[in-house]
Structures are given as structure tokens and as C-alpha cells.
Amino acid sequence: MKESTHQSFRPLTWPLFFELIRLPAKLCSFLPYLFGILYAWWGFHQFNWVNSLVYFVGQMSIALFVTGFNNVQDYYKAKDEHYRQTQNIIGREHLAPHRILALMGLFLTIAVGAGLVLVWRTNLSLILIGGAAIFVAIFYTFGPVPLSRIPSGELLSGTVEGFGAVFIAVFVNIVPQPIMLTLTGSRFVLSGNVPLVLGLFFLALPIVILDGTIMFADNICDLKQDQRNQRFTLPYYLGKKRALAIYPWLPAAAYLAIVLAVGLRMLPVPVLLVVFMWPRVRRNIDAFLAVQDKAKTFNTAVANLLLTFGSETVLLLLCILIDLAVHRLF
């Protein structure tokens, strides 16, 4: 769709910007970062505040880029004119797509710059890890066959935003790094601590599942609209009935992963207190199963992530503070 040279656009005010980047949902991007930093201290007794600060800038910049860029791509690729003009924020608020793209390009540049600083401060292997994450961030809605328009969005969203963020947060704080890429003469040598990498994935599994569940809920709510816009997501292939049958098992799997992580002594025992959040999570699941509406019940999936992984992160922080206090006293 071409933009008219005579079209008048509204300025991007702060309220519109916050809606464009879905500000409340940015907490979902911050929690894996915070959990990774806390686990680096709890599990390895290491913390690098400079690397953590640089990664915070990069992580939040890429999170802002993804949401804003996706809104622009959905506007351009929409087949349903009613959706484009009344539901997509770009068309509904008469924002200039090219200006939004320029702003998102700035966020992407900041994220890449932060990543290169971290590569310089840590290890070359971060190029591979960060590069894969940025590839998914760009091609999630860009290109002839965007990743969001095939049944891979839930897996990619959960893995990149969940495990990727936790892994990099630990990676930039500990020495030696879990994965190392070294240049020996004319050869690159890639090595890694497989048990550590697998352990970090298992620790991140709750956020991987719950982040993917948010995308799953979003796609269930938008199923009819996605079909009109030729977006064939996982719920399209599963069918709505089967998708709703699977939905409640996803948060349950996240809770099971937390219990197993404590049982395997990967997390302190007090983290088990997160199970007291389950009744509220279950009520949110029931509300979504009753009505699948973007405005009314979609936020229950976001709330479940915040209740569960937010509680897990806070409990880990409290364990660290108590441990520090005990060591000071004795």
C-alpha cells in the first residue's frame, strides 16, 4: 500500500507512542532480563553491572522495535481494509508509517550497538546468539513469508523473548561464558558447556511457555481476522476447539517446570511459594476459555505471565537478599 503524498498525518504523541509499543507488556520483556541477572548472582555469585546496564539498553530497545515494527508491517500487509483503518493503530490514528519505521530503525540501531559493545566485552559467540534473536525480531513480520504468518510464532516468541533474554543476561555476567567462540590462526573454534546451557534452558522454560502462551492467546482471539488477512497461525491449523483444549495445559506445564527446578536444586526452596499464585492463574484461564476476546480476556494471558514469572523473580530476589543479610551477620 502506497502512502499518499498529500495525506495529513497526526503527530506521534506520548500516549500514542505508549500504545504503539504496548508499554504495559514491556514488563514481560524486562522480567527475563532481571531473572537472568539474579540467577547469575545466585548460581555463580557473579555480577557485572556495566554489562548488565548495556544489555538492559539493548534488550528494551529491541523490545520496543519489535512491537512498533510489527504494527507497521501489519498495517502494510493487511488484506482487510476495515482492520487497517479501524483496528491497526497506524491507520486508526492516522500515523505516518514511514516515520514510525524510522523511529523503530533507531531503536534497532541502539540494540545492535549495545550488542556489539557486549561482544567486545565478552565473547564473539554473542554475535551468533544476538544475531539469531535480531533475525527473528525483524523477520517475524517482515518479508514475503513472515514468521508470524506460519505456525511458528508461539515457539519463536517464547524461545527468543524467554530463553534468549535469560541466557544472554547470564552470559554477560559470568566468566567463563556458557558458549565460547575463539579464533585460532585461520580457524574458528566453537565450544560450550552443554550441561550449563541445558540447565539455563530448563530454568527459563516457565517464561518460554508463558510467553508463547501470550502469543497463542493473541492468535486465538484474532483467528477470524487473521484468516481475512491471510495469516495462518498455529490456532488456524489446530482449529479453535483443539487450541482451546491445549491452552490450559500450557500454564500448568510452566508451574510443573518451576516445581521440578526447585526439586533438582536449581532454584532455592522458597521459590515454591509461587504455587500459591495458581488459583488466580486458573481463574484467568477459565475466563479466557469462556470468552476469547482481545479487549476483554486476552490480558489474562499477560496477567498469568506476570503473576507466575513475576512471583518467581521476586522470590529469587528475596532469597538473595536474605542470603546476603545472613552472611553479613555471621
UniProtKB/TrEMBL annotation:
<feature type="transmembrane region" description="Helical">
    <location>
        <begin position="155"/>
        <end position="176"/>
    </location>
</feature>
<dbReference type="InterPro" id="IPR026046">
    <property type="entry name" value="UBIAD1"/>
</dbReference>
<feature type="transmembrane region" description="Helical">
    <location>
        <begin position="20"/>
        <end position="41"/>
    </location>
</feature>
<feature type="transmembrane region" description="Helical">
    <location>
        <begin position="298"/>
        <end position="326"/>
    </location>
</feature>
<keyword id="KW-0812">Transmembrane</keyword>
<feature type="transmembrane region" description="Helical">
    <location>
        <begin position="196"/>
        <end position="217"/>
    </location>
</feature>
<dbReference type="InterPro" id="IPR044878">
    <property type="entry name" value="UbiA_sf"/>
</dbReference>
<comment type="pathway">
    <text>Quinol/quinone metabolism; menaquinone biosynthesis.</text>
</comment>
<dbReference type="Pfam" id="PF01040">
    <property type="entry name" value="UbiA"/>
</dbReference>
<keyword id="KW-1133">Transmembrane helix</keyword>
<feature type="transmembrane region" description="Helical">
    <location>
        <begin position="53"/>
        <end position="72"/>
    </location>
</feature>
<feature type="transmembrane region" description="Helical">
    <location>
        <begin position="126"/>
        <end position="143"/>
    </location>
</feature>
<keyword id="KW-0474">Menaquinone biosynthesis</keyword>
<feature type="transmembrane region" description="Helical">
    <location>
        <begin position="249"/>
        <end position="278"/>
    </location>
</feature>
<keyword id="KW-0472">Membrane</keyword>
<feature type="transmembrane region" description="Helical">
    <location>
        <begin position="100"/>
        <end position="120"/>
    </location>
</feature>
<protein>
    <submittedName>
        <fullName>UbiA family prenyltransferase</fullName>
    </submittedName>
</protein>
<keyword id="KW-0808">Transferase</keyword>
<dbReference type="InterPro" id="IPR000537">
    <property type="entry name" value="UbiA_prenyltransferase"/>
</dbReference>
